[in-house]
Write a structure and sequence with these properties.
Blueprint (H helix, E strand, L loop, with lengths): L5 E4 L9 H16 L3 E4 L13 H12 L5 E4 L11 E3 L7 E3 L11 H13 L3 E4 L3 H13 L15 H9 L5 E4 L6 E6 L3 E6 L7 E3 L7 H11 L4 E5 L6 H11 L5 E5 L2 E2 L15 H6 L4 H9 L16 H7 L10 E2 L2 H14 L2 H13 L2 H4 L8 H11 L34 H16 L8 H11 L4 H13 L7 H8 L1 H14 L1
Parallel strand pairs: 1-2, 2-3, 11-12, 13-14
Antiparallel strand pairs: 3-5, 4-5, 6-7, 7-10, 8-9
The structure holds glutamic acid.
The site of glutamic acid has 7 residues, from loops.
């Protein structure tokens, strides 16, 4: 029988969750769920220079927000203690809890483990001490660059005798440990996404695996963790593909079984350049702050490199559907285009489907940040009023942060040039007459009958042959805008008093 599936997400605490990281975490999660496995969240913090205060907590918060759940590893709080084997406080991050029997789940807490394994590699002849100074390495790099050679360590310290090594260690000369790479070998494996991948060891550098400060590098730590945590599938971004041969060699040196690898396609901008911070937002929280719904972000991110195939044109997927349909073998190899227009469209689809109470709850915080809303008259800030605005805007909205933006006249008093009221070649007199007709019709509607249907019915009863003659001046009187929802909709939101006031104001202007 196959081993139980165990998958890990291994972010580095650099401050925020990158959308690419979210995609990896999502695919990890979907694959694990689909296969009834265990999902582990571990923290790769061996590069202390990159650490940002609060970053681990922030990662957990973003994953939680997105609805991605894990079973083991680091948590900020543990709700289901009963079925967890062990709960410990993280030594590095006091607010973090570690749950599971294969911890620590934070790399900086297991330096002794990595060191032990690095020394074992040295003992077995698969790694060696390197005492080269930074100056020497810099010289070497320069010479190689001048000779148009790829930068590569020249294995100088591999020639040291045992006595020389002992002496240098006794003299406390700083050292690193490097992997010994036998050249002229071909390494081959089957990547779940990329198919057969082959590497020639001639192009591999004798990678540093333990740094002079005693910290392991990513390669060593990653392989040891994955082995100790019994990880069966390593699903990660394509940027890690060049690391794969080094990892394969480490597994071989240790005599460990290699997990199955899957390298996910790069995220690219529509112009095919690598998605980077310079071109726009890359942090998941930036998208949340702009008013994208988490369901829409998940849906969008799921499609960055995957679709169910078989001629399916489905674009909207709930998390449950994704779990059912996700298949690693259907992940594409080619770069996945991060098209913000598609995200807008997907978000719009989700907003359309929301009921008004939920939409109100989600949109209110965004509205509250807007100056035009803060300054609005009190009755325009009531739940009832805002919900009416939302009913009208809902179908056209792409982001929660856009509520009211295009239709400020719902919140502000209007001011506009008289000319805007003019429809075709109508004279001032005709315009006045037209507005009066509308006003009379609206005045007849009782306050408690002020519904969209009644408004539409009453106005259409008095509309002449040319609808524009009545509806254009009315719409402008109500909105002061060139473009807006229909006058029926606007009048309905504004309420009888305000609608009549605006029409009277327009009549006076003429
Ligand atoms: N720590 C790496 C990252 O930040 C993870 C690489 C891996 O999954 O092996 O993306």
């Amino acid at each position: 029988m196959d081993k139980k599936v165990r998958v890990r997400f291994a972010p580095s605490p650099t401050g925020y969750l990158h959308v690419g990281g979210l995609r990896t975490a999502l695919y990890d999660f979907l694959f694990t769920k689909k296969n009834g496995g265990t999902f582990v969240l571990k923290i790769e913090d061996t590069d202390q220079k990159r650490y940002v205060e609060g970053a681990v907590e922030n990662l957990i918060k973003s994953l939680d927000w997105a609805g991605i759940k894990w079973d083991e590893g680091v948590f900020t709080d543990v709700k289901t203690k009963e079925d967890k084997t062990e709960v410990a406080s993280s030594k590095t991050y006091p607010s973090i809890l570690e749950v599971g029997e294969y911890g620590p789940y934070v790399q900086s807490e297991k330096l002794d483990v990595y060191k032990k394994y690095a020394e074992k590699l040295v003992k077995d002849g698969n790694a060696y001490y390197c005492f080269c100074s930074l100056e020497r390495l810099e010289e070497l790099r320069k010479t190689q660059a001048a000779n148009k050679q790829a930068p590569m360590y020249d294995q100088c310290c591999l020639k040291l005798s045992e006595n020389e090594i002992k002496k240098k260690l006794a003299e406390k000369i700083p050292y690193v440990i490097r992997m010994k790479i036998k050249k002229g070998e071909i390494l081959e494996t089957n990547d779940a996404v990329r198919g057969k991948v082959r590497f020639n060891t001639d192009f591999l550098d004798d990678q540093i695996i333990l740094k002079s400060d005693g910290y392991p590098t990513y390669h060593l730590a990653s392989v040891i963790d994955d082995h100790e945590m019994k990880i069966t599938h390593v699903i990660r971004g394509e940027e890690w593909l060049p690391s794969l041969p080094k990892h394969m060699l480490l597994y071989k040196y240790f005599g460990w079984e290699t997990p199955k690898f899957a390298h996910l396609p790069l995220l690219v901008n529509p112009d095919r350049t690598k998605l980077s911070k310079r071109q726009g937002d890359v942090a998941v929280e930036d998208y949340a702050n702009k008013g994208y719904l988490k369901e829409a972000i998940i849906n969008f991110v799921a499609l960055l490199g995957w679709n169910p195939g078989e001629g399916s044109t489905q674009e909207i997927f709930s998390m449950e559907e994704l779990i059912k349909k996700f298949d690693l073998s259907k992940v594409h190899k080619a770069g996945a285009v991060f098209d913000i227009k598609k995200l807008d469209w997907i978000n719009g689809q989700y907003i359309k489907k929301m009921n008004i109470n939920d939409l109100y709850a989600e949109a209110l915080p965004f509205l509250k940040r807007k100056e035009f809303f803060k300054k609005a008259a009190e009755y325009r800030r009531t739940e009832e009023y805002i919900k009416k605005v939302l009913v009208i805007e809902k179908d056209r909205l792409t982001k929660l942060a856009d509520v009211g933006e295009e239709n400020r006249f719902f919140f502000e008093d209007v001011s506009y040039e008289k000319e805007l009221l003019r429809w075709k070649k109508m004279s001032d007199k005709d315009l006045q007459k037209s507005l009066k007709t509308s006003k009379d019709a609206l005045e007849k509607i009782p306050n408690d009958g002020w519904t969209l249907e009644n408004l539409e019915k009453s106005l259409l009863e008095v509309v002449g042959e040319r609808r524009g003659d009545l509806l254009w001046p009315l719409r402008v009187a109500l909105t002061g805008a060139q473009k807006s929802p229909s006058p029926f909709e606007v009048a309905w939101v504004l309420g009888k008093d305000q609608a009549l006031k605006r029409i009277t104001f327009a009549i006076k202007m003429l």
